[in-house]
């Protein structure tokens, strides 16, 4: 974790093992505490993937705070859940790609595609789903396949 923090210039995260989490989560980031809460029952493989995934969310929190806050705002929670398993939810897709590659694939281009204000406009005008082809093209250009979806 220290090597990741130094490489990406992100605060060091402490891992806290807990007996249970909300809903069906395996791990969750608490950026204000610089902690990842993780189920104590995870296998070593699940633990490693969760660490990379939540670390990437910390990166997003530090460097893309407006975007991070927009996606996780209570007023946008339904949008977040609706697009959770798709490339449209750029926070999750970026974290999935980062975790799957064990920190080797950097898909910041996903995070750079649209600002929080752009996403808000698309939400208000009910056009969020129309952004998927553009995001898929960015992934293709980067040589990255979406981890979930087409």
Description:
By secondary structure, this protein is mainly alpha-helical. It folds into two domains: 1-63, no CATH class; 64-150, no CATH class. Helices cover 51% and strands 9% of the residues. The protein has helices at residues 2-8, 44-63, 65-72, 77-82, 90-100, 108-112, 116-124, 132-142; strands at residues 14-18, 27-30, 35-39. The protein has a three-stranded mixed β-sheet, covered by helices on one side. The protein is globular and about 40 Å long. 28% of the residues are buried.
Mean pLDDT: 86
User: What's the helix-strand series?
Assistant: HEEEHHHHHHH
Tell me, what's the shape? globular
The Rg value, from CA coordinates, equals 15 Å
Number of domains: 2
Question: Structural class of the helices, strands and pairings?
Answer: mainly alpha
Strand content: 5-15%
Largest sheet: 3 strands, mixed
For the termini, the CA-CA separation is: 32 Å
- The number of helical segments is 8
Q: Largest beta sheet: what is the strand line-up?
A: 1-3-2
Percent helix: 40-55%
Number of strands: 3
């Amino acid at each position: 974790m220290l090597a990741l923090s130094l490489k990406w210039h992100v605060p060091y995260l402490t891992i806290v093992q807990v007996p249970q989490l909300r809903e069906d989560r395996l791990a969750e980031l608490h950026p204000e505490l610089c902690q990842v809460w993780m189920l104590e029952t995870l296998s070593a493989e699940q633990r490693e993937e969760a660490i990379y995934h939540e670390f990437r969310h910390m990166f997003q929190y530090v460097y893309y705070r407006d975007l991070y806050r927009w996606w996780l705002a209570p007023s946008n929670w339904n949008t977040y859940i609706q697009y959770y398993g798709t490339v449209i939810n750029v926070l999750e897709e970026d974290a999935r790609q980062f975790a799957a590659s064990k920190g080797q694939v950097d898909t910041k281009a996903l995070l750079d595609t649209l600002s929080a204000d752009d996403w808000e406009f698309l939400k208000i005008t009910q056009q969020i789903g129309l952004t998927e082809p553009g995001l898929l093209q960015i992934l293709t250009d980067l040589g990255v396949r979406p981890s979930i979806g087409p």
